[in-house]
Amino acid sequence: MISSLRGQVLSIGLDHVVVEVGGVGYAVQATPATLATLRRGEETHLATSLVVREDSLTLFGFADTEARELFGLLQTVSGIGPRLALATLAVLEPDKLRAALAEGNITVLTQVPGIGRKGAERLIIELRDKVGALAPAPSATGDTGQVRAQVTEALLGLGFPAKQAEQAVDAVLAADGALGTSEVLRRSLATLGRKR
């Protein structure tokens, strides 16, 4: 099992990144929010999950172990494979996903392409009691300053001018300072008129 990768980012695609570790380039499937935090030529560290099929070995990468654990948990539900699990994490950041499962919020879960009402109900029934075990400690959400720095750096990596990036991030955090990094990034990109 490959549980993490640390190495240089060789290239970034729409749905994957290639990370060179010890002279070998690993293609890692990831969400747009995770890919937006990476820069070509820089070192990265990704929590990973290796999915083995008869005809393929596929690596899925995440910014943190919390997202990786949710990815694995989602696949324990009948009808949820790795692609749909990754799509779920692309649409719903971990905190929002856990809350939707714990509260039985079908409307939020059906925002994910490929998950209908029955699928959402199945997710809630099977995972409601399990998501509490994955809840991070209160300090894991990070303070606003750290979130601001991470998102601003990601926007600079995407080519936005520093002033525009900082203003977009500040506007999002002023509206809701309790948001996680990936949601602040998503809203900042929307503010800047460039959705991934």
TrEMBL record:
<dbReference type="Pfam" id="PF14520">
    <property type="entry name" value="HHH_5"/>
</dbReference>
<dbReference type="InterPro" id="IPR012340">
    <property type="entry name" value="NA-bd_OB-fold"/>
</dbReference>
<dbReference type="GO" id="GO:0005524">
    <property type="term" value="F:ATP binding"/>
</dbReference>
<dbReference type="InterPro" id="IPR010994">
    <property type="entry name" value="RuvA_2-like"/>
</dbReference>
<feature type="domain" description="Helix-hairpin-helix DNA-binding motif class 1">
    <location>
        <begin position="72"/>
        <end position="91"/>
    </location>
</feature>
<dbReference type="InterPro" id="IPR011114">
    <property type="entry name" value="RuvA_C"/>
</dbReference>
<keyword id="KW-0378">Hydrolase</keyword>
<comment type="subunit">
    <text>Homotetramer. Forms an RuvA(8)-RuvB(12)-Holliday junction (HJ) complex. HJ DNA is sandwiched between 2 RuvA tetramers; dsDNA enters through RuvA and exits via RuvB. An RuvB hexamer assembles on each DNA strand where it exits the tetramer. Each RuvB hexamer is contacted by two RuvA subunits (via domain III) on 2 adjacent RuvB subunits; this complex drives branch migration. In the full resolvosome a probable DNA-RuvA(4)-RuvB(12)-RuvC(2) complex forms which resolves the HJ.</text>
</comment>
<keyword id="KW-0347">Helicase</keyword>
<dbReference type="InterPro" id="IPR036267">
    <property type="entry name" value="RuvA_C_sf"/>
</dbReference>
<feature type="region of interest" description="Domain III">
    <location>
        <begin position="147"/>
        <end position="196"/>
    </location>
</feature>
<dbReference type="GO" id="GO:0009378">
    <property type="term" value="F:four-way junction helicase activity"/>
</dbReference>
<protein>
    <recommendedName>
        <fullName>Holliday junction branch migration complex subunit RuvA</fullName>
    </recommendedName>
</protein>
<keyword id="KW-0227">DNA damage</keyword>
<dbReference type="GO" id="GO:0006281">
    <property type="term" value="P:DNA repair"/>
</dbReference>
<dbReference type="GO" id="GO:0048476">
    <property type="term" value="C:Holliday junction resolvase complex"/>
</dbReference>
<dbReference type="Pfam" id="PF01330">
    <property type="entry name" value="RuvA_N"/>
</dbReference>
<keyword id="KW-0233">DNA recombination</keyword>
<feature type="domain" description="Helix-hairpin-helix DNA-binding motif class 1">
    <location>
        <begin position="107"/>
        <end position="126"/>
    </location>
</feature>
<dbReference type="Pfam" id="PF07499">
    <property type="entry name" value="RuvA_C"/>
</dbReference>
<keyword id="KW-0067">ATP-binding</keyword>
<dbReference type="InterPro" id="IPR013849">
    <property type="entry name" value="DNA_helicase_Holl-junc_RuvA_I"/>
</dbReference>
<dbReference type="GO" id="GO:0006310">
    <property type="term" value="P:DNA recombination"/>
</dbReference>
<comment type="similarity">
    <text>Belongs to the RuvA family.</text>
</comment>
<dbReference type="GO" id="GO:0005737">
    <property type="term" value="C:cytoplasm"/>
</dbReference>
<keyword id="KW-0963">Cytoplasm</keyword>
<dbReference type="GO" id="GO:0000400">
    <property type="term" value="F:four-way junction DNA binding"/>
</dbReference>
<keyword id="KW-0234">DNA repair</keyword>
<keyword id="KW-0238">DNA-binding</keyword>
<dbReference type="InterPro" id="IPR000085">
    <property type="entry name" value="RuvA"/>
</dbReference>
<comment type="function">
    <text>The RuvA-RuvB-RuvC complex processes Holliday junction (HJ) DNA during genetic recombination and DNA repair, while the RuvA-RuvB complex plays an important role in the rescue of blocked DNA replication forks via replication fork reversal (RFR). RuvA specifically binds to HJ cruciform DNA, conferring on it an open structure. The RuvB hexamer acts as an ATP-dependent pump, pulling dsDNA into and through the RuvAB complex. HJ branch migration allows RuvC to scan DNA until it finds its consensus sequence, where it cleaves and resolves the cruciform DNA.</text>
</comment>
<keyword id="KW-0547">Nucleotide-binding</keyword>
<dbReference type="GO" id="GO:0009379">
    <property type="term" value="C:Holliday junction helicase complex"/>
</dbReference>
<dbReference type="InterPro" id="IPR003583">
    <property type="entry name" value="Hlx-hairpin-Hlx_DNA-bd_motif"/>
</dbReference>
